[in-house]
Amino acid sequence: MAAVETRQKRLLAVIALPMALLALSAVYPVFFTINAALKTRKGFVLDRFGLATDATFANFGQAWNQSRLSEYFTNSVVVTIGAVLALLLISSFAGYALAILRFRGSKIVFAIILVSLMIPVQVVLVPFYRTMIALDLINSRAGLVIAYTAFFLPFSVYLMTAFYARLPRELFEAAQIDGAGLVQIWWHIMLPMGKPALLTLGILNTLYCWNDVLISLLVLQDKRTLMVGIAALRGEYTTNVPLLAAGIVLAAAPIVLIYIVFQRQIVSGIAVGAVKG
Questions:
Q1: Are 103 and 50 found together in one domain?
Q2: How many other C-beta atoms are found inside a 10 Å radius of the C-beta of residue 81?
Q3: Which of 232, 249, 266 represents a domain boundary (last residue)?
Q4: For residues 223 and 35, which has the higher predicted lDDT (pLDDT)?
Q5: DSSP class per residue in 67-80
Q6: Inter-residue contact 143 to 215 (CB < 8 Å)
Q7: Mean pLDDT of 170-192
Q8: Are residues 228 and 108 both part of a single domain?
Q9: Contact status, residue 205 vs residue 156, Cβ threshold 8 Å
Q10: What is the mean pLDDT of residues 104-121?
Q11: Between the chain's N and C termini, which has fewer beta carbons within 10 Å?
């Protein structure tokens, strides 16, 4: 018995070491960024990896005001909220139609959505950019909201369709017998029951829209979102690393807060998309 316990302890020790190294590799970049943001430019040059003995918050104020991050932050908030609301509304309607109504050709439509998930964004950037120019949507927040909605809609529709397909069809049939219309059934039955999936979808799409750089860089060329503004803090030949680190901390703070508050919903989102066999 003692030999078995000794083997288990040794096995746990062997497993714990690489896990500890993995955790350190994830935590250290966060610590380094925050520590660098608290240093002056001179202090960082003299000692890059040491603790910030001359800690200052001046970099945060300079990044927020002088580097126009406050303006970029507003752009990101407006665009993200607009895109997420549009994605939730459209995907909820589409998932309801594909999973519950099952109209003629619904399987073909769902198959097209699945295929579109396999197409990389980079493949369609040229026709996408030409379309945006033709529609005069370049340098507009509305254009970026439409772009985010278009690019992230296939995944959203897939998730909502998979969730609604798991619900008992008897609920829909019973509501029809009671005389409820299709919109009434969606509003009073499907939408309330779909809140877990909608919450997960809202969190995921918020992260996608907030962290995006490529699509935002193409659409908002004069205005900028926060992530594009952070990238612009890098100079061509030299970079004020403490200022850049402060900008990164400011940009990451809302996302970290979302992860902390909604971590259970994010993890449960993996199971939400399981299709009923």
A1: no
A2: 13
A3: 232
A4: 35
A5: T-HHHHHHHHHHHH
A6: no
A7: 86
A8: yes
A9: yes
A10: 89
A11: C
Domain-embedded: residue 118: yes
Identity at 213, one-letter amino acid code? V
Q: Which domain holds residue 41?
A: 2-58
185 HSE (CA, 13 A, CB side): 20
Give the whole-angstrom CA distance, residue 45 versus residue 29. Answer: 18
Please indicate, yes or no, if residue 127 is contained in any of the structural domains. Answer: yes
Question: Which one, of 104, 125, 96, lies nearest residue 218 by Cα?
Answer: 125
Q: Which residues have CB under 8 Å from 159's CB, separation 6+? A: 91, 95, 197, 200, 201, 269, 272, 273
Q: What is the pLDDT of residue 3?
A: 62
**10 and 126 part of one domain:** no
Instruction: Give the chain's domain count.
Output: 2
Does some domain include residue 42?
Answer: yes
How is residue 118 written in tokens? 């396999």
C-beta separation of 163 from 97 below 8 A: no
pTM as predicted: 0.82
User: Distance between CA atoms of 152 and 267, rounded to whole angstroms?
Assistant: 19
Tell me, yes or no, whether 263 lies in a domain.
no
User: Which DSSP state fits 38?
Assistant: T
Q: Is the pLDDT of residue 133 over 90?
A: yes
